[in-house]
């Protein structure tokens, strides 16, 4: 839909060996353009977090990449294929954890994973043994004590762990996680983060996740993509985005029993001068750098003002 903007845009050449290559992706529902020329790529083993306000089009983007939704226009390559024409062998290389999945209530955890895993056996290769050994997988997602329970009797967080196990049972090369830790307690969240690191570091799995938890995105993602107004308004590591916004750090200290707070973009220089001036009288020094949440809010607000 190049013409929709009234200008002809140069089309970026395809990126060699990219796991994901999205160019000028448009999606229209009725008369509303939800995606207006989205561009991004992902390499093997990269973890990408797709962030954006409610209704920004994150789920739509993921569904197009998974081949569940037909795009209006644009070039999309997922593991080298157009998802609109992906066959069974291509699908076996993807893993999907959707936002809510309430099927399989009568199945027992181990039985279900063994059954779903059997579909992947034909797609095993020398490099990637499919499916994942069922007991190892159950242990990996922390469900060993619940392996014989019916899916319908699991708690919300346990159910979500099962969703993750279903998503990775075929040892996917590319894994889509739509708000994966919604409903997780802090321990389950920590274990899940370890699992994501393991999948990307040890198995070279490429992961695209959506989350509204910016702390989680900062911990997990090599690269952050922010989707707003149908476009990618930021694409970089959390550090790169923070530098781009030159957001302020907060410096706190005490002197002579009094507490002080100062916001500055040059925290190191400020602290140096503080010690030159007051030396040993300074106590309880704390420097809080901008979090991804600060940067995200600044970027989205800036976008809304200039839109
Ligand atoms: N099948 C559909 N038909 C019409 N409009 C739709 C359809 N699916 C989504 N939309 C609209 O497209 C926009 C993007 O929705 P989408 O679910 O992709 O957003 P999101 O970024 O995933 O939101 P959230 O953070 O709330 O999950 C919304 O305005 C939504 O109402």
Which short descriptors sum up this protein?
3 domains; binds adenosine-5'-triphosphate; 307 residues; single chain; 3-stranded antiparallel sheet; Rossmann fold; globular; 10 helices
What does this structure look like?
It is a single chain. The protein is 33% helix and 26% strand. The protein has 307 residues and is of the alpha/beta class. It has 3 domains: 1-93 and 173-187 and 202-240, 3-Layer(aba) Sandwich (Rossmann fold), CATH 3.40.50; 100-171, no CATH class; 242-306, no CATH class. It has a 6-stranded mixed beta sheet with strand order 5-6-7-3-8-9, with helices on both faces. A 3-stranded antiparallel beta sheet has the order 2-1-4, with helices on one face. Strands 11-10-12 form a 3-stranded antiparallel beta sheet, with helices on one face. Strand 8 (223-228) and strand 9 form a beta hairpin. The two termini are 20 Å apart. Residues 1-7 have low confidence and may be disordered. Adenosine-5'-triphosphate (ATP) binds at residues 29, 34, 52, 54-60. The site of adenosine-5'-triphosphate has 10 residues, from helix 1. Residues 20-254 form the ABC transporter domain. This is ABC transporter ATP-binding protein. It is a peripheral membrane protein. It is found in: Cell membrane. It comes from Amycolatopsis alkalitolerans.
């Amino acid at each position: 839909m190049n013409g929709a903007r009234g200008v002809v845009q140069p089309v970026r050449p395809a990126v060699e060996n990219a796991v994901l290559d999205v160019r000028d992706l448009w999606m229209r529902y009725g008369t509303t353009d939800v995606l207006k020329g989205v561009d991004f790529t992902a390499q093997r083993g990269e973890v990408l977090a797709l962030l954006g306000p409610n209704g920004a089009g994150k789920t739509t983007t993921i569904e197009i990449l998974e081949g569940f939704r037909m795009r209006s226009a644009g070039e999309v390559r997922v593991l080298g294929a157009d998802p609109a024409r992906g066959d069974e062998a291509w699908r076996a290389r993807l893993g999907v954890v959707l936002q809510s999945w309430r099927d399989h209530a009568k199945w027992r955890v181990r039985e279900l994973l063994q059954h779903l895993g059997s579909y992947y056996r034909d797609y095993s290769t020398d490099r990637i043994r499919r499916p994942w050994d069922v007991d190892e997988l159950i242990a990996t997602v922390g469900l060993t004590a619940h392996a014989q329970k019916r899916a319908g009797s699991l708690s919300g967080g346990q159910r979500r762990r099962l969703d993750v196990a279903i998503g990775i049972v075929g040892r996917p090369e590319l894994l889509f996680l739509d708000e994966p830790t919604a409903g997780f307690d802090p321990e389950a969240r920590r274990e899940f983060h370890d699992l994501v690191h393991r999948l990307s570091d040890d198995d070279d799995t490429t992961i695209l996740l959506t989350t509204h938890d910016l702390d989680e995105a900062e911990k997990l993602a090599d690269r952050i993509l922010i989707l707003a107004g149908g476009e990618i308004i930021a694409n970089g590591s959390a550090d790169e985005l923070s530098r781009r916004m030159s957001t302020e750090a907060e410096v706190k200290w005490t002197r002579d029993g009094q507490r002080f707070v100062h916001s500055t973009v040059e925290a190191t220089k400020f602290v140096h001068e503080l010690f030159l001036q007051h030396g040993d009288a300074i106590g309880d020094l704390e420097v809080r750098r901008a979090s991804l949440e600060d940067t995200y809010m600044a970027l989205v607000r800036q976008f809304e003002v200039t839109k």
